Amino acid sequence: xxxxxxxxxxxxxVSLPFASEAKRIKDISSIQGVRENxxxxxxxxxxxxxxxxxxxxxxxxxxxxxxxxxxxxxxxxSISISQTMLKNVAAVMVTASIPPFARPGQVIDVTVSSIGNxxxxxxxxxxxxPLKGADGQIYAMAQGNLLVGxxxxxxxxxxxxxxxxxxxxxxxxxxxxxxxxMTLGQGEFLNLELNDTDFTTATRIAETINRELSPTRxxxxxxxxxxxxxxxxxxxxxxxxxxxIESLQVETGQVxxxxxxxxxxxxxxxxxxxxxxxxxxxxxxxxxxISTENAVSQPNPLSDGKTVETGQSSVDIKTDKGGLVVVKKxxxxxxxxxxxxxxxxxxxxxxxxxxxxxxxxxxxxxxEII
Length: 370
Fold this sequence. Notes:
This protein is of the alpha+beta class. The chain folds into three domains: 3-16 and 257-285 and 321-369, no CATH class; 22-34 and 183-251, Gyrase A, domain 2 (2-Layer Sandwich); 37-176, no CATH class. Helices cover 21% and strands 36% of the residues. A hairpin with an 8-residue loop joins strand 4 (90-98) and strand 5. The protein is flat, with a radius of gyration of 31 Å.
């Protein structure tokens, strides 16, 4: 068995949770309406060391600079974009998330991403940029020095780059200017929303709240597999009441059998509820190599002939032996992994094997490809 694959699967077995365990309500649900809100803005990064936008190819950068300088009282002559070469400026999009109950004066982190052809944002400074919400209102103002997690160097066409240089962050780079209106529930009720739909967990949460916080009358009821409605006190007492709810522990329902496949990276993750019916699997690799050798045919001296390109191509086909292996019915993840390893499957091979097992009806799990 492949050693790296074996180590990966062993670590996976250790890290997987049990099918059912006690968790805090805070960890598996949230209060309806209490959420982050996304902000976005357009701005300029200045102070770059010649790695900014090639402004002849990004006219919006020049237009932004001219508009900014005009607002600051700088009178500019009529300059064509083709004559403007500013290599120390880059046009960027600035994004952030404003947390719930954020108040004016608080600070949040921002992410700055180049939208032009700048080579690097390293060492740049973001100029004051308004950040707007989905309603078009300004909720924060961003400005500051960028922190870029990479480095690069180049000369005469050669370049070395470590990590991504066209995206940076500014910790505490934006100041909240407007609060987002939020309410803890509607009227005398508030709703808990599960992170994952599960009728069993929703029912158990309602039962736990009634048993621990109101044994004499029912104050919580599961409306569906995701929402639990709770009768809550008014005013400041509601905050303390929510705190007590969040600290309660609930025995969650059994985790749904699921296999997650990342087709881009070849990663395969499955939980311990995945089982197999008996089936036969054969897997082999077919490799086709096409190679071409280019050459030229020169004419004889003093002749009227012309140079002619010639070439020879060859095709080589190799097939790895793939034996037929009977995979017995598995009742645990251990047996499923062991059966797949018997045919020498690598993580990349598992992508096609698991999909075929699912289509054949032998894999009992939801197959999700991301």
